Amino acid sequence: GSILTFYGMWEASLFAKHWLPFCKRYNIEPRSPAAYFSESDGHQELCTPKEWSLIKDMFDKMTERIDTVVMSGKVPEEIKASHKGFYEWNQEITSKNHQPIVQILIDSKDQNAVDNEGKVLPTLVYMAREKRPQHHHNFKAGAMNALIRVSSVISNSPIIMNVDCDMYSNNNDAVRDALCFFLDEEMGHKIGFVQYPQNYYNLSKNNIYGNSLHVINEVEMGGMDSLGGPMYIGTGCFHRREILCGRKFTEDYQEDWNAGIKDKLQESIDETEEKAKSLAACTYEHGTQWGDEIGVKYGCVVEDVNTGLAIHCRGWDSVYNNPKRPAFMGVGPTTLAQTILQHKRWSEGIFSIFLSKYNVFLFAHGKTKLRHQMGYHIYGLWAPNSLATLYYVIIPSLALLKGTSLFPEITSPWIAPFVYVFCVKNMYSLYEALLSGDTLKGWWNGQRMWLVKRITSYLFGVLDNLRKLLGLSKINFVVTPKVSDEDESKRYEQEIMEFGSSDPEYVIIAAIALLNLVCLMGGLSKVMKGGWNVHLDALFPQLILCGMLVITSIPFYEAMFLRKDKGRIPFPVTLASIGFVMLALLAKIV
């Protein structure tokens, strides 16, 4: 509901008259001008230097104007006079309290809506659904449903694509490729949606925060593709409009590719905008099945997973398309806090599905394959995995310090299953990571983040779900912030982990790291002194486990005791973690 967003779109609609012909003339990729010019050195040979400089200068001036307006926080009056849409805003409007706003910036039916070569421009529409404090807006799912309805009176196109606001098109063929699946003569009528992977363009070389999603994209999602199709991940997806509106699959299904288009040609812009506004009103859904049987599902912070599951249960298949050149690129988290927050929301939301009537084993029973249901539960059980992980990073280490063996002796044949799981799991994990494009160091960073996410994000995901079940909290959709200051960005490029605040998650990380360091030093000290009445081979597995945890935690020790920059772990966090370690040691003694 921001006038600044509307202003940015208005500027982009003017720039499009020059940018789109330029893109088509030279087959420009990526189509995002910001992304294109950021890697411009490899593209200048496509056109004459004069033409390249001209379009680059136009883009720079546009972004400079937008930045100036955003910095000032208001749109100049002379610009407001350029489009009637600016007068939708007044001093009383806030982001959480405003009327529905629908403005058609470019109308492809208008004879004057052409680029500088006289070719028709695509329709471009700004929509802000109505928001009132007394009406729940249902977060992203509510916005998606409003867009589905509003688009039905503007184009009513049979295919809907959605991407997150921080993503751009990176592959010109993505739309055509998706349509090829829907139009396939043998299998096309069975396909409800085509899902592309989520890729980030700002990852560090060695994936310091484990955000590449390479293994998920290359292995896991591809595996689900053979079982009925991948889950809907909320971005980079093409849906049939009819399946989002609740249609069940039937063998005789045929898409009507011309539905509604002729009717739209007869309406004026003003008529269309007014009709669309009524569909974006906050009371429109009252007494309807929107958010339940129709549209994107409500009641969960990962509405995309719920929605995709319901589509699969109505008999539709989905398709996973992972082209060599990524179809869409977005912004990944660049600090530890951003990563923890993102995974907390994901794990909390998917675990809430596991605990709800949409539990895949129950809701999809008899509707999808058992293996497909198990594929969903790989992610549904992220959160409770935190409990097992906490046990393994605390109890064996304390037992090591006390001299209590928890595993079979290293010379016993019963140690074989433990050694097998440890070796094969890590070797196969490394194989998958390298095969998917990670580096060796990137895989090691991923193992560290595997630990961090399970003792922070996933743990809080469990706790938040328990609070909701007890009625102590409500659903809250927290958008992951992805803006970092200059110092944070510099440390990210250098692959130095970012802490800098006193979040409780950091206390857990520091306490686990210190506890394992103390237990390893104490255990080795007793071994060297020969102070144990048990053989070393009985405690060797615990020494290995504790030692691996200490090696994994080296960046945490540096952040606590060696680093002096603002991104280090603050002293109060270190002090608190030392206190918790002392309590754990006292409990061990008792």
TrEMBL record:
Record key words, sorted: Cell wall biogenesis/degradation, Glycosyltransferase, Membrane, Transferase, Transmembrane, Transmembrane helix
Chain positions recorded as Mn(2+) binding sites: 140, 164
Gene Ontology CC: endomembrane system; membrane
Signal sequence region: none
GO molecular function, one term: cellulose synthase (UDP-forming) activity
Compartments reported by the entry: Endomembrane system
Any one GO biological process: cellulose biosynthetic process
Membrane topology type: Multi-pass membrane protein
PANTHER family documented for this protein: X-BOX TRANSCRIPTION FACTOR-RELATED (PTHR13301)
Stated name of the protein: Glycosyltransferase 2-like domain-containing protein
